[in-house]
Input
Amino acid sequence: MDVTDDSLINRPILASIHTEAFRHNLNRVRELAPESKIWSVIKARSYGHGLEAALKGLGSTDGFALLDIYDARWLRDKGWKGRILLLEGLFHQNELVLARDLACDLVVHCETQIQWLEDFQTKGGKPFNVFLKMNSGMNRLGLKPVLYKVAFHRLHALGCHMHHMTHLANADQTDQSPTVGAQLECFDGAIAGIAAPTSLANSAAILWHRNALGDWVRPGIMLYGASPTGNYQDIKHSHLQAVMHLHSEIIDIQELHKGDRVGYGGRYEAPEAMRIGVIACGYADGYPRQAKDGTPVWVDGGAADSSGLICPLVGRVSMDMITIDLRNAPQARIGTRVELWGTQVQVDDVAQMSGTIGYELLCALAPRVAVEIK
Output
């Protein structure tokens, strides 16, 4: 739910999307890959951040990469004149006309898509910019190396403007993974003698495998300020900024005696007399139900320097509420502001305490959460 007027905000949970952080992170990509052009990946509603915020914050990118052709149409309707790449190509042959009208670049990853383009060209269709995808070892999308050259020449013969593309399965291994090297060797061998621009690097490769950048890089999660590995410590010194800040408020406080239990199933038992803060945020908002006791929540200290006021989650996450131990925040009252993730609490840290990765939490932000674009 996008909001532009504070009067429209009822329940206190709010996701603030900081477009200046988008611009900062895009500049970091340019610093790390200065010789490459950039496809800014905005699939899955820009990883839960919304297309409007991405267009505003990432508008200096060389192109946007996404999955849904109707998102491409949205970008064109909003005035985007730059390049758009459909990362999985077309899902149905009847999308070719719309893709042409929207001037989309296409990833081509299988024989069926090649046949669609051949049929389209025989009927007078305009040639596309094509990123031909090779399966260099990830075994997801892409043509096997033995089939790649023939496919390339078939598309080139149609007049398509060709590019080489692959996807690295283990670039998130921060050392020089031998698997990355094996994929590069496979890719380079298959394209030998076929001159065309290349695209290999996702966020992880941009950060840790800069021998694998290519002519076009495809940053995703790093644009949003989270870690490709799921571990914030791996990007702590990369100077990336969190784009989404998820905030709420304490809506009630319970005074517990030693031995009192909290929440469904009574998972947490009070070790002493203590205060528990109830926060307006639950799994229906996208907060992970699997979050363990101890998951960090930042509580506003009401002072100029209150960054150290981290309070642990206690008790099971419910649909609309979570509960936290307020012993670190004696100043907390009903209405005190809290951050679920953002700058004080990294989304990757919440995800690690929940058995998942930051990608999932960002993408899972629920429609009922108000969103403010800054």
User: Anything to note?
Assistant: The CA atoms of residues 215 and 284 lie 41 Å apart. The longest strand covers residues 244-256.
